[in-house]
Amino acid sequence: FPGVVAYCMSKSALDQFTRCLALDLAPKKVRVNAVCPGVIVTDIHKRAGLSEGDYAEFLNKCKVTHALGRPGQVDEVAQAIAFLASDAASFITGVTLPVDGGRHAIVDSCQFKSFLGCCAVVLVSEGFESTGRQCSIDTVKEDKGRSHRDRGPLSPGPRAALTGTEGRSHRVCVFPGLGEGASPEAEHSRRYQSHIPSSRLQKLLLASGSALMALYNPYRHDMVAVLGETTGLLAIQKLRDRMQNHPEGFQILQERPRISTSTLDLVSLRELPDGTFGREYVRFLDVNKVTPDSRMPVKFVDDEELAYVIQRYREVHDFMHTLLGMPTNILGEVAVKWFEAMQTGLPMCILGAIFGPLHLSTRNIQVLVTDLIPWAVRCGRTAQCMMNFYYENRWEQNLESLREEIGILPCPTVQS
Predict the structure, then answer these.
(1) How far is CA 373 from the centre of its chain?
(2) Residue 87 burial (10 A CB sphere; 0-12, 13-18, 19+)
(3) Which residue has the higher pLDDT, 415 or 321?
(4) Which of 128, 137, 126, 72 minimizes the C-alpha distance to 99?
(5) Predicted confidence (pLDDT) per residue in 366-391, tens digit
(6) Is 249 within 8 Å of 387 (Cβ atoms)?
(7) Which of 181, 290, 330, 412 could in theory staple to 371 by disulfide, Cβ–Cβ 3.0 to 4.6 A?
(8) What is the dihedral of CA 394, 254, 224, 185, to 10 degrees?
(9) What pTM value is reported for the model?
(10) What average pLDDT does the segment 20-31 reach?
(11) Which UniProt keywords apply (predicted)?
């Protein structure tokens, strides 16, 4: 097991998850171990011989048919299914992990902790009785006051350590996450689910290519994302440090909230009174026809915590548009980039701010230079750090009140 990250799951949820697999895959002649629920041997990367349509139907059935009694189990199963549907999942297998012998022996907790950081997932049940000296998996409280749960997008569940127990073992499903053709060595160097290990030379080539493509087409968000990851390490570290030294920012690093349609209740936000931050945010989404699901996952940042920081930066970008009152056209994007450049120091923001106007008309360049850039620069320099606000807890706050708290100055009235 080179590189294991534990994904804690309750026994009943794991049993239900296994039954979903057994019931739906059995007619397709896919083997599922029904004697010991949770131990599955199936090649997911090749869809176990299923057509894409059958596989999609299976996933949908899993999502809608399991009826679990305890609140929260539905989410546990849904998260596991979501991982299966991702590119990171190649196959599922399962074992009982012996501590002091056997093919897959793990000697002690130190050895197990050394495995952490790679793109693998273990679904852990509550355990069942067995003979012999077996192992259990317990969560580890991290340093610097972080909570024991690793809530980030980049690690599917809490990290774990291994301790020996007598006469007891835990059922596990192991999702190694090895893509077809990937080497075990490359897999072992992965730090989180979407991570792609790369050398300095590879990062340099990625940065050069993505910079040229992003300048040619500012709407190539994938290229903008790669540029930010391969050029902004020092800036990201400074952002992380600022968050660690701020109560609200530190809470965000602990809890690692995500912003997507699966984590936001957009219906409830639309029911908030006009003028509240939540209502104006969904109004921005509706008017500009954008979605919070459009943010690319981080791939080329090698530190897992820094990867979350830049992921968070991406996901609050639409909040910046809402707070600054800027649309998603090039004029609005350039203004936001000037604000973010002052706030973050990210090279991609600086490049976007400088070269973005090349795509504007002469009239819009004049508006940008005389009105928007001076305003955005002032806001960026005087406002509090944009990363230190837990926006998800401020939906009901008046938008103008939040702007005043952050230090965002009133936007000049311009016509593009």
Answers:
(1) 32
(2) exposed
(3) 321
(4) 137
(5) 989 999 999 999 999 999 999 999 99
(6) yes
(7) 412
(8) -160
(9) 0.55
(10) 50
(11) Lyase, Membrane, Mitochondrion, Mitochondrion inner membrane, Ubiquinone biosynthesis
Q: What angle do CA 80, 82, 83 make, to 5 degrees?
A: 65
123 phi and psi, to 5 degrees?
-90, 120
Q: What are phi and psi of 146, to 5 degrees?
A: -70, 155
94 vs 303 pLDDT, higher one: 303
21 within 8 A of 137, measured Cβ to Cβ? no
Rounded average pLDDT over 90-118: 34
Amino acid found at 174: V
Amino acid symbol at 415: Q
Beta strands 121-124 and 172-175: pairing type? antiparallel
How far apart are the C-alpha atoms of 206 and 226, rounded to whole Å? 7
Angstrom distances, CA of residue 305 to CA of 76, 152, 193: 23, 8, 13
* Alpha helices in 137-276, H assignment, sequence order: 184-188, 200-216, 221-231, 233-244, 247-255, 266-270
> Please, how many CA atoms are within 13 Å of residue 182, restricted to the half-sphere of its CB?
21
In the 8-state DSSP scheme, what is residue 391?
Answer: G
Reading the block at residue 194, the tokens are 């979407």
Residue corresponding to tokens 């299923």: 50
162 phi and psi angles, rounded to 5 deg = -115, 130
Residues 6+ apart with CB under 8 A from 91: 42, 43, 44, 45, 175, 176, 178
Question: For residue 24, which amino acid is it?
Answer: D
Q: Are strands 160-169 and 172-175 parallel, antiparallel or unpaired?
A: unpaired
pLDDT of residue 130: 29
Give the H/E segment covering residue 33: none
Question: How far is it, in rounded angstroms, from Cα 327 to Cα 318?
Answer: 10
Q: Where are the alpha helices (DSSP H) in 154-199?
A: 184-188
